[in-house]
Amino acid sequence: YRNNSRLFDYVHGFFVEHRFKKGYVPIETYGYEYPSVSYEIDTCSISPKKVDVLKNTIASCNTKGVKLVFAIAPSLYSEDVYNTPQYDELLSIANEYEVPIIESRKYREYFIDSALYKDVNHLNDKGAKLWMRYFIPELKGIIKENIGI
Asked: Are 106 and 113 in contact (CB under 8 A)?
C-alpha cells in the first residue's frame, strides 16, 4: 500500500475540525494501561544501507545550507539502550558531521513516570508538554550558537 494506506489520514484534516493547533496532535491517554519500562533492547545489526541514507541526507542538507539537529525523545527503555551499537553509531555519525544532538538522557529522572507515555516509544500529551520544557530551550541555544540569532 503506497503511503501505508494513510490517504484518509492525510485528507481527513480538510474535512474535520480539530482540537489541536500548529501541527501538534496529542496522543490520547484514555482507556489503556500505562506501559512498563522495557528491558528488551533491539539487538539487530546496523543496516549499512540505512547508515548510508542517513549520511547522504546529512550531506545533502549541508550542501543546501539546511541546519540539522538530532533529537532523541524520552522513552521507557532501560538505560541499556544507551549502550548499544546503534546508539554508538548515531553518536559517531552526529560527531562526524557535526550535527548537534538534543538527548533526553540527561533529563531521564523527569521521564520515568509511565503516566507520561502512550507506549514505551511515544510520549502522550502530558509527556510531550513536559519534554517541550527541556527541548525548546536547548533547541533555541543550538540555533543561537550555530546561526547567531
From this structure: no
* 122-123 vs 101-103, strand pairing mode: unpaired
Q: What is the pTM of this model?
A: 0.72
Taking alpha carbons only, the member of 142, 50, 105, 84 closest to residue 58 is: 50
Q: Give alpha helix (H) positions in the chain.
A: 7-15, 48-63, 85-96, 125-147
Q: Which of 89, 3, 1, 88 lies closest to 53 in space, CA to CA?
A: 89
| Grid coordinates belonging to 74 | 524520552
CA dihedral 118, 122, 124, 125 (to 10 degrees): -160
Per DSSP, the three-state class of 114 is helix
- Over residues 90-123, the pLDDT tens digits come to 999 999 999 999 999 889 899 888 888 888 888 8
Read off the DSSP letter of residue 68.
-
94/82 Cα distance (integer angstroms): 15
